[in-house]
Amino acid sequence: MADKITPYKDSSLSKKEQVAQMFDTISGNYDNLNRVISFGIDIKWRKKVLQIVNKSNPITILDIATGTGDLAILMSKTTANTIIGLDISAGMLEVGVKKIKAKNLSNTIEMILGDSENMPFDDNYFDAITVAFGIRNFENLEKGLSEILRVLKPNGTFVILETSVPDKMPYKQGYEFYSKNILPIVGKLFSKDTVAYGYLSESAAAFPYGEKLNNILRKIGFIDCVALPQTFGVATIYSASKQ
């Protein structure tokens, strides 16, 4: 299962602690490296998440696993006047705070160090919740999703952007070769953490995607679950709501 895949195989730390340590280590190069690895297509995917969220005219938005705040910053283009970015990596948040300040968005976006599986928010608090490339890092996926359901308002919008595996040839073979052979090498060239991008590749391949993830969302209690494959299926956008 994906929740058994951890960044550091010989570490005694929990997955949650290892993920925080890993992202602290690579935070300085994370944005640039992501642009290289995805050929910049991740920007297009995030804009599609923005379009989905914007339809509900949200006032309060939570961006979980916000990292350096790319999606939280993009959400400032919605009707929201309160945007919170939550992450377990202090290093990533530090980079994000600088970006937000440079864009004069500090009054709109607040960055919080916290655990997605135990969030410090009231029930039914947010109009919209997003998670981009972070949900596979949850230590307990179902617990994290249950927390998201708890803090989402009824009829609220929940959107996930996550890597997935193409089902059709030759995209499937090309993706497997790239993720297993090219991505870790590029990661090592740019990052001082030599195992980080090996973990990101391995966890992406093992994580449930498409209808499998939709079924988990339904099991937790989400409704109107839809999976929208992107770029031949190398990523998928999921949208769901709350009864």
Structural write-up:
This protein is an alpha/beta fold and 243 residues long. It has helices spanning 15-26, 30-38, 41-54, 70-74, 90-102, 141-151, 171-190, 196-206, 211-220; strands spanning 60-64, 82-87, 109-113, 126-132, 152-163, 222-230, 235-242. The longest helix has 20 residues, at 171-190. The radius of gyration is 17 Å and the shape is globular. The mean pLDDT is 90.
Characteristic terms for this protein:
seven-stranded mixed beta sheet; single chain; 243 residues; 7 strands; alpha/beta
User: Which structural class is indicated by helix and strand composition?
Assistant: alpha/beta
Q: How are the strands of the largest sheet arranged? A: 3-2-1-4-5-7-6
The run of helices and strands is HHHEHEHEEHEHHHEE
User: How many strand units?
Assistant: 7
Helical content class: 40-55%
End-to-end Cα distance, whole Å, is 29 Å
% residues in beta strands? 15-25%
Count every helix, treating DSSP H or I runs of 4 or more residues as helices.
Answer: 9
Largest sheet: 7 strands, mixed
Mind sketching the topology for me?
Elements: H1 15-26, H2 30-38, H3 41-54, E1 60-64, H4 70-74, E2 82-87, H5 90-102, E3 109-113, E4 126-132, H6 141-151, E5 152-163, H7 171-190, H8 196-206, H9 211-220, E6 222-230, E7 235-242
Parallel strand pairs: 1-2, 1-4, 2-3, 4-5
Antiparallel strand pairs: 5-7, 6-7
